[in-house]
Design a protein that fits this description.
By secondary structure, the chain is α/β, with parallel strands linked by helices. The protein contains 5 helices and 7 strands; from the N terminus they run H-E-H-E-H-E-E-H-E-H-E-E. The protein has one domain: Rossmann fold (3-Layer(aba) Sandwich).
């Protein structure tokens, strides 16, 4: 998937216009680029990943992002963004790598302001594998979002995955 396809995928979940967002598990930056393009000028985007090389490459190729090297399974800080300040967070094909997705999501949601959006992109109805060790079916989202202090999620988009199956985009707001 390229950044244009990713932008089309997140369009129903991410409002256009400036805001403060974080892409948790940014990886090679496909969805970070999509987020920057969708939000436009004036937005502040944090790209968070544990891979220093990926973050360095992303910083060289995408203007205006703040990269943060962190393991999402451990506590960390976003420079200049205390808890309760993000307008939105994006977890694209990330949460399925966490051993305890509800705990990780709850910790990340602490950065959202009231009314902020939590956007999740995952594979639906997938069996565990080394590429998706902890799958998150769309049917399991209401309990996951509720445990993290989020309103019931809405699945706003679906797309076929190049790796088989289907991906979904879900969004829920912080109460």
């Amino acid at each position: 998937m390229d950044a244009r396809e990713a932008e089309r995928l997140i369009e129903p979940a991410v409002p256009s216009g400036p805001g403060v967002w974080a892409d948790f598990g940014a990886g090679d930056g496909t969805f970070t680029r999509a987020l920057v393009a969708r939000l436009g000028p004036g937005a502040q985007v944090f790209a968070v990943d544990r891979d220093a090389r990926a973050l360095a490459a992303l910083e060289r190729s995408v203007a205006g992002i703040t990269s943060v090297r962190a393991d999402l399974g451990q506590p960390f800080e976003l420079p200049g963004a205390p808890p309760g300040t993000l307008d939105g967070l994006l977890l694209a094909n990330t949460l399925h790598f966490m051993r305890d997705p509800p705990a990780v999501l709850a910790r990340l949601v602490a950065w959202l302001r009231p009314g902020g959006s939590a956007v999740l992109i995952e594979y639906d109805q997938r069996s565990p594998s080394r590429w998706v060790p902890h799958p998150i079916d769309a049917a399991d989202l209401p309990a996951l979002y509720q445990a993290a202090g989020l309103a019931a999620p809405r699945v706003v988009a679906r797309a076929d995955s190049a790796f088989g199956g289907e991906m979904y985009v879900a969004v829920g707001r912080k109460s």
